Every structure is written in structure tokens, then in C-alpha cells.
Amino acid sequence: MIPGGPFMRWFEVGERACRSGARRRRVGELVVLVALLPLAGVGLGQEGEARFSNWSKVESPAAEETKKYKDSVKAGTFDAAARGFLEEVALPQLSLEANRATIERVRKRIREYLLADIDNDRAAEEASKTVLAFMNTLAANDEAEPVVRVNAMLLIGELQAPKSKQPWPAATAPLAEAVANAALPRAVRIAACVGLARHVEAAKGIADEQKRVAALALPAIAAVLAEPVPAGGGAENDWMAARCVAMLPVLGPLTPATAADAVRLLGDGGRSINARVRAAAAVAAGAGPEAKLDKAAVIAAVAGLAVAALEADVAAAERLALDREYSGTAAGQGLPGGPLPAVSYDPASPPGSPLDPTLQRPAAQWIPREACRRAAWRLAVLADAILSDDAKRGLATLGGDVVPEDKTLAQSLRRAALELDAAPEEATLRQVLAELKPPEPATPEDEPDAADAAVPAPAPPRAPPAGGR
């Protein structure tokens, strides 16, 4: 303890009282008792903070407080002392600057070292409630560091039921509330999305649990999908929207309201392509007759998205090519895989040799191979959204028989995906786009005027007669 302060005042009071005679012995004993309090370890104070200045000291064999906590909960007892240890020693470790570089490990060890081996249901429940309340408060604390708030929310999503090791049901509600809370930083809400998705997936196939989770998760998902897109777009919002829409089919058949939310995301040109692709997959996976979809309109939107995705890749490549042209950078330089190799062609080389001047030079690759493979994935997902390869699932199956045009469209998208996957090059992507893009409608300027059409075209000039002048 720091010299002076309240403890020093206790000594001064004791000394004055000792001079009074009658109370000399009693107050002297009080002074001794107060002097021994720091040595007895009552309360952490600065001494305790020094002893637990980082997580490794919490797990140290010399940490008596940790040993007492673990012995207590293993015996099935979670009392005030155990709660105090969590709230005053263990859980604040997540916020300590000394643990910042290893904060992920600290988060993991809080669950594994302090909660995972509690066999008594009541003790496990009380310990988990303490962790949940502490981390929920920490995640909502505007004064805490962002990385601390994110890890606090991640820990809530990682809490497990003691015996099943499944996501702890009591954490579903606070996770859903955080997902829907637009006042929280997006990073914290994204962390909550990760945890909520874990709860949704764990409920799959368990009717009662699925119903419970759906009642909490669906309003939160609807809130995310209804949020306006920030000016200039928002990668965080798109990520949350994509993650939320992917949960919908797991929670049961889409209702008209949830189907409408997903379809709106699918057709929203202000959203990222990937978020829209995942929305198409979710609609196809979860929509049934009760969703009351306009099948033809949704399939047309999926087809339009396939073309828009390819056009976006081409547009990005053309912008990059233009930038590099004006900056003087060589084609392909700075792209994944590096610039194209320089090849010197020898005019004297025999035909068919590597230096044959008649061989086609490599074209500039402004669309990386990774982008081409991503485009192939998008096309494959959209093809399945319209009609699966076995023709048993997809939007085309809604309402009965599959229309031949829908089947042909799905086959075209799937074939294009396979071509791109086999040859992930810019030329392939451009060719696929040309094949999938519908023809441009004729404009009035392209159509001949009726009056002009009635005037016969002038006759071609006559060839001069042979031998003529």
C-alpha cells in the first residue's frame, strides 16, 4: 500500500488514543490489525494489480486466488469469492495493455481455463452469467479500446454449454441485441454477427431450438437488412448484410417479409456484388410457396446480377489500365503474380520455336487470376440459385414445372463458371461476358426511316466497257 493516505491516518488516530490510557490496549490492537491488512491480502489494491499485471500471472502456479477459484468451482461452489475473482482479477485482463499483443489468446484462455472444466451445472451457469454480464458491459463501453470491445463480444459468442459444448443458449439474446444495435461500432456488431451465426447453425435440425433462436435472430437480421447504405457504400454494412442473409434459410422457410428483404438486397445496385450473390443463394435455399415470390422477376434479377458482376470486373480492369497508361506503369505490373514476363522474339527463329516472331504476344492481364476465379464462383452460385445441376432445387422449381428457358439460363451460367475456372484469364472472362450479355435493343436511330426506306438505293457505278476510254 502507498505510505500515507487513510492507513497512515489510522496510525495517527491510534497513537493519540493510546495516550488516553484506558483505551490504550484496545486501540493499540486496532492499529496492529490495520497495519496487517495489506499483508493479509484483503482486497487487490495496487499490490494485487502488480501481482496480476498480465495473464500469465493469473495462470501462474503461485497465484493462490486462481487456485482457490478453480478448487471452488470444481467442487460445485460458485460463491461471492469466486465471483469476485472473475470480476476483479481474471476478466479485467482482457482490457490490460500488457495483454494487448496476445488478446486473442487471453480471450480463449478465459473460456478454456476458467469455465470449460466446471462439471457442476449450477456453478457453470453462474460463472458463465458472470462472464456474460462483464463482457456485455465491456463491449458497450465507449471508453474501452475498440479491439477490447470486439474481443469482449467475440467471447460472448464463444461461451459454451458445459456438457454439450454447444453455444450457450443464454448468449443468443445479447448477441442478437448487439447485431441490431446501430449505435454500436460496426466492428462490435460484426463480432456479434459471428457469434449469432454460430447459434443459428447449432440450432439447425432441432425444432424447438430453431424456433427459439429464430424468434431472437430474425428481428435482428431484418434490422440489418433494412439499414440504409452509407454514402459511397459501406464494406462493413455489406459484410453484415451478407452474413445475416445467409442465416435466413437455416432458420426455416422464408416468410413473405424475410423473402422481400433478401430480394431487395439481391437487386440493390448500391450493395457489393458478393452480398447480392449471397442474397440470391439465400432466397433460392429458403423460399417456398409461402414466400409468395414473383419467380420470373427474381430469376431475371439473378441473371442481371451475373452480367453485372462480370461487367464490374471488366470496368475495374479498364480503370486500372487507364491509370497505368497515364502513370507509365507496364501492363500487369503490381497485380497478383507480378508483371508479365518480357520476351524477346528473334526474327531468325524457326517456326514453332519459343522465339518464333509469328507467335501471339501475351496480352496484358488487368484482371488477376484470383478475380477470375471469384467470378467463376459467383456464376456457379447464381446458376444453382436458378436451378441446381440435378434440376431438383432452385428458384425455377417454385410453382411446379421448370420452364425450359430457366433451365437453359442455369446451364449457360454453369458452363461459363466452368470455363472461367479452367482458364482464369481476362480473355476468358470477357468472352464469357459477351456470351451472357443480352443483345442491345435497337434504338430509333438504328432503324431506317419509312420515307428513306421507300427511296430506292442508288445503283452502283457501272464498270467501264472493256477497252473503253
Verbal overview:
- The protein has helices spanning 5-18, 24-40, 45-51, 55-58, 64-74, 80-90, 103-114, 121-139, 146-158, 172-180, 186-202, 207-226, 235-247, 256-266, 273-286, 295-327, 369-386, 404-422, 426-436, 450-454.
- With 469 residues, the chain is mainly alpha-helical.
- The protein folds into 3 domains: 5-40; 45-251, Leucine-rich Repeat Variant (Alpha Horseshoe); 260-333 and 365-438.
- Helix 9 packs parallel to helix 11 (186-202), helix 12 packs across helix 14 (256-266) and helix 15 (273-286) packs parallel to helix 17.
- The longest helix has 33 residues, at 295-327.
- The chain is elongated and about 85 Å long.
- The model is unreliable at 1-48, 331-345 and 457-469 (pLDDT under 50).
List keywords for this structure.
disordered N terminus, Leucine-rich Repeat Variant, single chain, 469 residues, 0% strand, 3 domains
Order of helices and strands: HHHHHHHHHHHHHHHHHHHH
Q: What is the residue-mean pLDDT, rounded to a whole number?
A: 82
The number of distinct β-strands equals 0
How many domains, in number, for the residues? 3
Beta-strand fraction estimate: under 5%
* Class from helix and strand fractions: mainly alpha
Short description:
With 469 residues, this protein is an all-alpha fold.
